[in-house]
Design brief:
Blueprint lengths: L1 H19 L9 H27 L6 H15 L9 H42 E3 L6 E4 L6 E4 L5 E5 H6 L2 H17 L1 H14 L4 H22 L5 H14 L9 E2 L4 H12 L7 H23 L3
Parallel strand pairs: 2-4
Antiparallel strand pairs: 1-2, 3-4, 3-5
Family: Belongs to the peptidase M48 family.
Organism: Thermostaphylospora chromogena
Protein name: Zn-dependent protease with chaperone function
């Protein structure tokens, strides 16, 4: 029963992610959609590995967590059910443990590589960037092309190029900085990290690529929404268009910038200039309830006995 439930949950999450990549209601509530994406990712990973492990450990009759403990004890004592080591169960155990190890390894690897890239970039900024009394709290990079991005972390920094200072008006600059500070405050880098790690694990999957792109766009829209609390949406839209037409520099690896692909910029500009109606409260509650259900269902199924 547990094996079937975990397998069904994995399929539901995979199909849901496939359909979710083309959803447009998400642009009306990017924060809610981001939570749902995160729940889908966590539930799929735990359900996929859990289904394999649940089948492999079925002879112990104690579920996934209890079965892993019983399996470990049986290795040390040599006392195990006869069916525990037949070929199907052994293959399922190897596959489940391997998939779990791959998912954890790519997540940790992506985190370590991102932290190293940010540390190196901070060291570089300490050498070549400067402060400007006219733009307090922002690091100025003497580069003629337009660039604006943030370096997330415990010592977060917002960086803007001299070219961007010349390109933008004062109001447009304030809008761009508000957007970057939104990335910093809401730790959007942590939102994107699992999806970039999953893409490393499954580089052949079109659904994973589409999911990463969709979450990246939602993160930018969420930062736009927070920024327009403090600035004019029109100013932010014109700043994005100026960056696009000027051929802005993409954000370095591991950083978060204001401008993405041309298609995403056009969608964001349209959304800023012609705001979409807010998602009805009942749909927000339904999406949040679904997110919570997905987030807790897989861990609970790991704990249930067969």
């Amino acid at each position: 029963m547990t094996t079937a439930a975990l397998g069904a949950l994995a399929i539901v999450c995979a199909v849901g992610a496939w359909r979710f990549t083309t959803a447009r209601w998400t642009h009306r509530a990017p924060h809610v959609a981001i939570l749902l994406w995160q729940a889908l990712g966590v539930a799929w990973g735990l359900a996929s590995t859990g289904a394999l492990l649940s089948y492999a450990l079925q002879p112990y009759g104690q579920g996934v967590i209890g079965g892993l403990h019983a399996f470990t004890v049986s290795i040390m004592t040599g006392d195990y059910p006869p069916a525990a080591y037949d070929l199907p169960h052994v293959i399922a155990l190897i596959a489940g443990l391997s998939l779990f190890a791959v998912l954890v390894t790519v997540l940790l690897t992506a985190a370590v590589q991102t932290l190293r890239a940010r540390r190196r970039h901070r060291e570089l900024l300490a050498l070549i960037a400067r402060d400007d009394p006219g733009v307090p709290g922002v690091r100025i990079l003497d580069h003629p092309r337009a660039a604006a991005y943030c370096v997330p972390g415990l010592r977060s920094e917002v960086v803007i190029s001299a070219g961007a200072l010349k390109l933008l008006s004062r109001d447009e600059l304030a809008a761009v900085l508000a957007h970057e500070m939104a990335h910093v405050r809401e730790r959007h880098d942590l939102v994107l990290l699992p999806f970039s790690a999953l893409r490393r694990a499954l580089p052949w999957s079109q659904v994973v690529r589409d999911a990463q792109d969709a979450v990246g766009l939602l993160v930018e829209m969420a930062a736009d929404d927070r920024a327009r609390r403090h600035c004019s949406p029109r100013r932010l839209a014109t700043a994005l268009l100026r960056f696009g037409t000027a051929g802005s520099i993409p954000a370095p690896q591991g950083m978060l910038g204001s401008v993405g692909s041309q298609a995403s910029v056009l969608l964001r500009v349209q959304r800023l200039l012609s705001p979409l109606p807010a998602l009805p409260r009942r749909l927000r509650v339904a999406a949040l309830t679904l997110s919570l259900t997905l987030a807790v269902s897989a861990p609970l199924l790991w704990l249930l006995p067969h």
